[in-house]
Specification:
By secondary structure, the protein is an alpha+beta fold. Helices cover 42% and strands 32% of the residues.
């Protein structure tokens, strides 16, 4: 039997699939009216890098934005009190951090104009997590590695990210199984106690009626 050599494009497709599976990229543009808050969420795993860039879009080319057209931005974990990024009176900015724990992270925007002029701003926002957040071109320049070595390193990071994702999902599945088992056990005991209580009450009522009938010589 003649062995088949892996084709370069097949390796590329495999690398692309692994990379897409182990990272997340959100790139969007949205309108932000004054007086409203726009929040965007992302599920980020522990020790994952996350990078975000945001800016106000100037719809009037050739004209400067009014001085009071600024926004405020905050980044925090859902249910937490720690702020990973906060900025106000800005037109653009960026944030970067490594998630200290797994969970849902939020980025919230609002217009912080000094005057309530009913302005609506258009915002460009790009949010990258996992392998996509790494600046591989900069890493390549710093370490003087060639393109193939950079791709191998990228694939290695992607494999580690997938492993962390599988471990995380497995832990969540075990937690759910334990929770279901505990709930079923408690429901079984509750049903048993309720059944016993109903029969006890029924027995007491029967005994009381029997005593009442004998006392009044009805039986």
């Amino acid at each position: 039997m003649v062995g088949l050599k892996p084709q370069p494009h097949s390796l590329f497709h495999l690398l692309l699939a692994v990379t897409l599976f182990s990272c997340s990229v959100q790139s969007l543009r949205f309108d932000l009216p004054s007086g409203f808050t726009k929040c965007i969420s992302e599920d980020i795993k522990k020790n994952w890098m996350t990078v975000g860039n945001y800016s106000i879009v100037n719809s009037n080319e050739g004209q400067l934005l009014p001085s009071d057209h600024t926004i405020a931005v905050t980044v925090y974990k859902s249910g937490g009190t720690r702020s990973y990024h906060y900025a106000e009176h800005v037109r653009s900015g960026q944030f970067a951090f490594v998630a200290s724990e797994s969970g849902n992270y939020l980025v919230c925007f609002w217009v912080d104009s000094k005057h309530d002029s009913g302005v609506t701003l258009s915002i460009d926002f790009v949010w990258k997590t996992g392998v996509a957040a790494r600046d591989w071109s900069n890493i390549a320049k710093q370490t003087n590695v060639d393109r193939m070595a950079r791709e191998v390193r990228n694939m290695h990071e992607s494999a580690l990210s997938i492993m962390e994702e599988i471990i995380y999902l497995r832990e969540r599945d075990e937690e759910m199984l334990d929770f279901n088992w505990t709930t079923n056990t408690r429901m079984l005991w509750l049903s048993f106690v309720s059944f016993l209580l109903c029969f006890s009450v029924a027995g007491l009522q029967l005994w009381h009626l029997k005593s009442f009938f004998k006392k009044n010589k009805i039986l």
